[in-house]
């Protein structure tokens, strides 16, 4: 099934008019054992655009645009190799309530990422994913200033 592109997760619908249950894939966390080395590879070898690059709370995370899809977040706090898809939904509490009514379970309590509240969860095969609600749009992009 193909999903139509729109500006708001609430408006993302398939061609047959049903809502996409996980909204839109906004970020793909990529575990990194060396963010500087990985960032150089993505920008210099692959030609990706660096969107932002921050070090905080003992880790470094850099965002790169490598495709028309989600940003790749090169994350020093994620194990390498690993990938974590992060989906944006229009209303996190409503989505979690609906999914829970069908047997979904989060991994732990709701927590915050820079963009807003978030839940981690796993599918039956153990693949970890995340759901979040955008409440602080473009927070990291607005704080990043290219230097040098």
Characterize the structure shown.
By secondary structure, the protein is of the alpha+beta class. It has three helices and eight strands, in the order E-H-E-E-E-E-H-E-E-E-H. It has helices at residues 35-45, 92-100, 139-143; strands spanning 24-31, 49-56, 59-65, 71-75, 83-88, 111-113, 116-122, 128-132. It has an eight-stranded mixed β-sheet. Residues 1-17 have low confidence and may be disordered.
* C-alpha termini separation: 45 Å
The gyration radius over C-alpha positions equals 16 Å
How many individual β-strands?
8
Which outline best applies? globular
Approximate strand percentage: 25-35%
Q: Provide the spatial order of strands within the biggest beta sheet.
A: 2-3-4-1-5-8-7-6
Unreliable stretches covering 5 or more consecutive residues:
1-17
Query: What average pLDDT do the residues reach?
Result: 85
Fraction of residues in H or I helices: 10-25%
The description of the largest β-sheet is: 8 strands, mixed
Structural class label? alpha+beta
Order of H and E elements: EHEEEEHEEEH
Helix segment tally: 3
């Amino acid at each position: 099934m193909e999903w139509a592109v729109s500006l708001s997760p609430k408006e993302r619908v398939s061609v047959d008019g049903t809502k996409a249950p996980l909204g839109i894939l906004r970020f793909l966390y990529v575990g990194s054992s060396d963010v500087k080395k990985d960032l150089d590879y993505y920008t210099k070898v692959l030609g990706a655009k660096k969107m932002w690059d921050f070090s905080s709370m003992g880790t470094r995370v850099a965002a790169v645009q490598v495709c028309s899809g989600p940003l790749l977040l090169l994350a020093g706090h994620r194990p390498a190799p690993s990938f974590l898809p992060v989906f944006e939904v229009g209303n996190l509490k409503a989505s979690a309530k609906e999914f829970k009514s069908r047997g979904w379970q989060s991994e732990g309590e709701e927590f915050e990422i820079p963009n807003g509240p978030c839940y981690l969860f796993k599918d039956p095969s153990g693949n970890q994913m995340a759901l979040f609600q955008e409440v602080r749009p473009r927070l990291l992009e607005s704080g990043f200033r290219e230097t040098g």
